[in-house]
Amino acid sequence: MSFEEGEVEWKTLEEIATITIGEFVHKNKQDAGAKYPVYNGGRSATGYYEKFNNTGNKIIVSARGANAGFVNRLSTPYWAGNSCYSIGLKDEETMNWSFVYYYLKKSESKLIGIQQKGGIPAVSKTQMQNFILPVPAKETQARIVAILDKFDTLTTSITEGLPREIELRQQQYEYYRDLLLSFPKPEAG
What is the DSSP letter of 57? Predict the structure, then answer.
């Protein structure tokens, strides 16, 4: 396949990354005041723990449950539970972890679509290992990541700023409503 910057290789995720499954940590050993988030099969942390088993700069994929196939990335240390795949690059000289994240995130519906059905939906480690992705030149990956990071930042700032903007618009509306509907009362006479 051709790409404007040259040829693009296609490789399996296993060729470019290590894929590990986390370890179970019982809920009663977790503590809301602990430092490290615990990720299992969901979209967000399920709790906090005083230890970590991954150092960050990892892509995580939900292995089991209703969200099997959901893709996220973490740049800080965390505890990966036993329903969480952690994906770390083998060679950061040829691969940009944010590029791999964005590609997997783009393919999230495909990952969710390959869930093994049954009692509990799951994406197997073999399915993750055999997942194929493009490997353009590192410079091309960096340019793609820079553009997507800008969009991500804009989207995040809009999403975070939107509630405040709505609140200010509501205050503005109420001010003008009150101003426009304020009529002098006739004096009693």
Answer: S
Fold of 2-136: Adenine-n6-DNA-methyltransferase TaqI; Chain A, domain 2 (3.90.220)
Helix (H, G, I), strand (E, B) or coil at 115: coil
Q: What is the pLDDT along the chain (189 residues), one digit of tens a residue?
A: 334 556 889 999 999 999 999 999 998 999 999 999 999 877 889 999 999 999 989 999 999 988 899 999 999 999 999 999 999 999 999 999 999 999 999 998 888 887 777 788 889 999 999 999 999 999 999 999 999 998 888 777 777 777 777 788 778 867 867 676 666 666 766
- Residue among 23, 24, 51 at smallest CA distance from 37: 51
| DSSP H helical ranges for 60-137 | 97-106, 108-113, 125-129
* Contact partners, residue 148, CB within 8 Å, separation at least 6: 98, 102
Give the burial string for 33-58 (b: 16+ CB within 10 Å, else e). Answer: ebebbbbbbbeebbbbbeebbbeebb
Strands 47-49 and 84-89 come out as unpaired
